[in-house]
Every structure is written in structure tokens, then in C-alpha cells.
Sequence to fold (367 residues):
Amino acid sequence: MKRRMTFPTLAVATVAAMTLAACGGGTSEETAGGGTSEETAGGGASEEAGGKVDISDAETVFKLAFNQTAEHPQYLAGQQLGQDLYEATDGRYAIEVFANEELGTQADVVQNLSDGTVEMMYIGGPVMESFNEDFIVFNLPYVFDSLEAQSAVLNDEEVVGDLYTSIEDSKNITVLAGLHAGVRNVYNSKQAITEPADLEGLKIRVQQSDSQVAMIEAMGAVASPLGQGEVYSALQTGALDGAENNETVFDALKHDEVAKFYSYTRHLLIPDYLLINTQVLEEMPDEDREAFLELIPGAVEEADAGLVDFAEESRVAAEELGAEFNDDVDIEAFEETVAPLVESSINNDVRQALFDAVNASNEANAG
Ligand code: GCU
Fold:
């Protein structure tokens, strides 16, 4: 049975903050000065992120698996969601977030989620392709023009409703929401990258999916798909020359210590998703489930707005460590190398409709 989903409506302030960040990582005093996610969340969850509510006597505590640090806005929004859920259900439900891949890599945890031994997780878009290849559309390079365009699509039930429920029957997994995962750029230990030829022969880590392998190879590099937790030591030993990710991963996971050349290829605005085991969701009493679903948009909004600030703070921190950020990149040249991949990936009606929605959203959010 298909469930109706609730989607967030983004506050204007949040969208404005995202525009700034999307337009080239320019430093704004406000965000560089250590602004916190709570300050900019624009109507997100009630209390301070990481908040004050003791959930230890909740009847049911959902485990939410996360592969990044406890400073990350998705972690903070998840913790807050857990506390808000506790309050909204009079202590019947709460959520505890497990950071730093404590519950395993995304590829492993999603199997546990499907079995129901982990109830919730954040997952990168590419891993979803192994369940339903149509998820590929949002994982392709240079398809979204801005974070606002991405948000509008990810939160439009008309567009994504079927996609988000498409693996309920086969995998027992429901997508609760799509979130920003920042703007991804290439970094490595050798040199600044300005054009595709500079990537030639470099071993670059990508997320684990065929689309990501094909993408980085089209951009000129040698692809190495790996779980996120393995990247630091591979960079350190030289098994990898580099990776591609947003500034938060670059700094928080200390990649900036071992691969200091970060170049703004801006090849991906790729989503993360918040997942839940479908049966767990269905078994909640109606009233509690409704209360839970109503809290999701605020949590997404808080996480998305927080990420924009966190990326900027991470860039500043990485620069202090000696990382070098290069914004002299021939984006058009990279776009050309991946255009055939984009074209060949939009190969059925479902993907075409999603792709059309992306383009319409790009247009609607241009300017
Ligand atoms: C991003 C994203 C994660 C993803 C990670 C990765 O940080 O938010 O979901 O797992 O990149 O590259 O593996």
C-alpha cells in the first residue's frame, strides 16, 4: 500500500542561503564567522540541535545510521528529530543517531535497514541505484544548476512520490526525504585541477555505483569506488591520489591533511536520502506516524541550511590547515566530457520524466 508523504516547504531565508553557497563557495562573513545551523535553520526543529530532551526512557528508539561526524548538520537534525518525536509521541518513540559509520558503511547498513535491524539511515544517492536504477537521474553530473533547483525537485511529491516508494515492496525501504549533500568537487595530493587532462592517470575515489565510476572516468581519472571510511588511509598510503566530495567531508574526515589540492569542478549536486524500514513505519500507530512525518520537513530544512554554513566553515578550516582551493576550472570542458553519460543514462520514460522535472526546476529557479 502506498503511503502519502509529507514534503518540506523551504523558507525563503534558507533558499537564499543556498543560492549563495551554490554560486561558487564565496565567503560570506556571516557564515564564515561560525554561524550555527540553529541560527539559520529558518523555522526548523524547536530546540537547540543536539538538544535537551532526555529520550532514554522512550519505549522504542530507532537507530539512525550516519557515516559522518557528530558535528555534521544531518547528525544534529537527526538528533533533534529524535527528541521532537519523543515529545510528539509522549515518549513512545525517539531516534538515536550513530555517527562515523559506527553501524557500518552505507552499503552494509542499507542491507540491515532492509532486514529491519537498523530502522533508519542517511544514504548517498548513488547507493540507491543498486535497488532502483532510476535513482541515477539525480546522481548525474551537472544536471542540477543550483541547490534551490535541487531542493524543489527532491521535495516535490508529484515528481518523486513514486520513486521514493518504489522499493517498499522489493526491499522494505521507504525514502522519507531527499537532502542536500553539498556541491562535490575534485581534490588530490598532486596538483590543482583546471581541465580534464589534469586528472589523467589520477586514482580518484567515488561513491559506490556505476554512474559514479563512469562519471569520473569520463572526466579523465581512474575510478576507485570505496566506502567513505576507507578513503583517508588510502589517501595517506598513496593507494588513492584523490577523491571528490564537498568541503565538509574534505575537512571533517581529514582528507585535507593528505590531499590538499581542492578544485571547484562543481560536477555534482547530488542528494542524500533519509530512509526508514517500511514495516517499522507502517507498524507505528497512525497518530504517531503522522506526527513523525510532519516533523520530517523541518528536520530536512535544518540539515540543508546547516550544510551550507558547515561547508563554508569547513573550507575556512581546511585553508588554515594549508589546503589550497582552486577556482580556475574549465567547467565547460568537464561538462562536455560527461554529456554522453548523461544522455545515455536517460533511457526510459521514468528517467525522462525525472530529468524533465530537473530541467524545469533549473529554469524556474534560475537567476
Ligand atoms: C557525502 C554524502 C554521504 C556520502 C559521502 C561519500 O558526504 O553526504 O552520504 O556517503 O559523501 O562520498 O561517501
